[in-house]
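New to this. Explain the following:
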Amino acid sequence: MMNKRVHISSLLAASVGVFSVAFAGGAGAVTAPRWVNIAPVPETASDALVADLANLGKETVVDAHAYCCTLVPESDPATDKGAIYARRFRAVRDRVKALSPVRQGILFQATIGHGWTPNSRTPWQKIVTADDQWKPYKFCPLGKEFLAYIAKAAKALADEKPDFFMVDDDTRLITGVNGCYCPLHLAEFARRTGKERTREQVVADCKTDPALAAAWDTLCRDSIGVLLKTIRAQFPPSVPGMFCYCNFDAHHAGHLARLLAAPGQRPSVRLNNAWYTSQSMIALPRILSMTAREIADIGEGVDVLDEMDTCPQNRYSTSATRMIDHIAMTAFEGCVGGKIWITRLGNVHETRSGAYYRTLLSRQKGFLEAVTALDVSRTGIVIPIPEKRPLDAWLSYKPTDWGVSFFGYMGLPYRYARAKKGDVVALSAFDLPYFSDAEMTNLLSGAVLLDGAAAIALTERGFGKLIGVEARAWTRAPISVEKFEDEKLFGGADAADLAARAAGAEELSRYLHADSGLTPANEYLAPGSIRFRNALGGTVVTLAAKLVAEPVHLTQFWYYNETRKRQVTKIVRALAGGRVPGGVFYAGDEPAVCLNGTGRDGSRIVVLDNIGADTIEHPEMVFENGAPKAVERLGDDGVWRPVGFHAEGGEIRLHAPVGSFRPAVFRVR
C-alpha cells in the first residue's frame, strides 16, 4: 500500500511538471471554435464525405470539424489507435483543406471508455465502482499503463498539427460511477487524508462526513486532471483545447477546461444538455432548465457550447427543426455556440436523412450567429438557483420546477438565477432540498410563489410560520371546482390541504365540492390559494394545486388552461407590484415559451417559441410597460425586419406567424 501511495503521489506531481514545461515560452491569443461538427475518420473517406465536410464549413454556421477518434484501449497488447487515427486524420484533413478553410481538429472520444466492452480486452486497471458489483470497461485515469498509452496516442495526433482538440465526456468520475475505488485511488485518498480505508469504509465515511466527501470529490476531479494534463502536454501552446462533461460533473467542468485551454485561450466546455432521440416539443422547457443549472455549476469565465447531438445522427431520432430550436433557445441561457453531430460514424456515409440538417444550418446561419451574439439582460419570474451546489445534488438532471412544468408552457416570462432583492421567486418541491435554512429564510423575506407540493415540503421543514400555512396531504372530499374571483377553475386531481392558516392569511380562492356532476358545487372544502405577509416583510402566495409535477402527466393537464393562466398571471402581477416581471408575456392559449430581456442598446428583446403543433398565426402579446412604437423580427439571415402589429382588447397582435419549434426573436422599441 505504501509503495502504491508514493507512486500515485509522484504521478500527480510529475503530471503537473510536464504540463508546466509544455507551456513554457509565453502566451498568445488563442481562440477555440464555437460551432463544432463531429466527423468520422473512416479508413478511406469517400468523395461525398469530403465534399460534405467542406460544404458544411463554407455554407453553414459550422466553423470546425472534430474528427472522432475512439481511443479506449482494446486488445492485448493494446492496439496503437493513435497512430492509426493520425494516418486517417491526415488523409481526410488534407482533402477537406483543399476545398474549405474550415478548422479541423481531434475529438478524443472514449479515452477512459464509456463502459461498453470490446471483443478483445486490455488488462489494465479498470474503474472499481462503490459496490464493486458493476464491472465497467472503463480505465482508471491514474493507471500508469493507461496514461502512457494515452500520451503516446495524443502525441501521434498532435504531430499532425490539428487546429484544435476536444476531449469527450467519458472523462468523468462522478456521473455513472460515483468515483473509482480501485487500489490506486484508495492509496491516494489515504495519502491525502492521513488514514487508510477500504472501499466500504470510504463509501460509509463519505456519507456521514461532509469534509471527507468533499475531499473524495476533489480527488475524483484531480484524477481526471491527470489524464487531461497528459493530453494537453502533447500539444503546442498555439493549439486550443476544449472539454466535454456529463451532468453530475458540471461543478468540475470549469476547472478541467482550464487545464486543457491553451495560454491566452478562454476555457471552453460543451454542456451535457442534449435530449437524445427526442422529437418531443414539450421537452424544451426541461432542456432550458438543465442548461441554466449546468452553466451556474460551471461558473464564470468559461465559454459554454450547446450539446445538440442528434443521436443516432439522423432525422428518425431528432428533426432538423428541433436541432435549430435547441441551439437557438439555449443561446438565451448563455450558450455561445454548439457541438453538432449530424453525420453517421463508420465507413458508410449516409446522406438522405441528414440532408435537411444541412439545409437548415445553411438557411439559418445568420440567425444562429445573431442569437448567440445577442447580449440580453434577462427579466422575468425567478426560479432560484442555490448559492452553492451540494455534492449530492444532481440539479441538472431531469429537473422539475416552475419553468419546466408551468411557465414554459403558459407563455409567462421566467429565468433561472440566484435571487436578488426585488425578484418574484417561484419555488417548487424539487428546488427546496438544495437551499440551506439561511437561504430559504432569505428567499421567504421577498415575494414568493409556491405550489401545494412546495408548501407541504416547507411545512415539514419548519417554515410554516413564514409561509402562513400548515400544508398537509389532501384527505378531504374530492375537489369539484376552484372559485377565484368571478371565475371557476377546474379543481384538478391533486392538491395540498391548506386548512390550518396563520393569523392574517388571506384566502384568494376556495375549493368547493359537488355531490355529482349535475349538482351545484356549494360545499366549501378548503382554501385554493392563500396570500400571507410574514414577519420578515415577505409576501408568500401559496396555490394548493400541485402545479409543479412531471410533464406529460395526465393530472397535470387539469391545470393547463386559459382560466388557470389568468389566475397565475394576476397573482404574479400582484406579487411584482402591478406588472408581470419583465412587463411582457404571451397572452394566447397555446403552449409556448416566452423569454424576454433588455439588449445592450436598451431595446426589449422578446423570444416566443411555439412548442405546440399548431402555427400561431397572430401572436397575442401583452406589453405592460406601454405599447411598442416599433417591432422587428430576426430573420433566418440574421437581419432585423419590421413586423406589423395592432392593438386589440389590451393586447398587441403581431403580424408574424410563429410555426412549431421556429423560435421567433423580436426587438421591441
Remarks:
- Confidence is low (pLDDT under 50) at residues 1-11, 13-27.
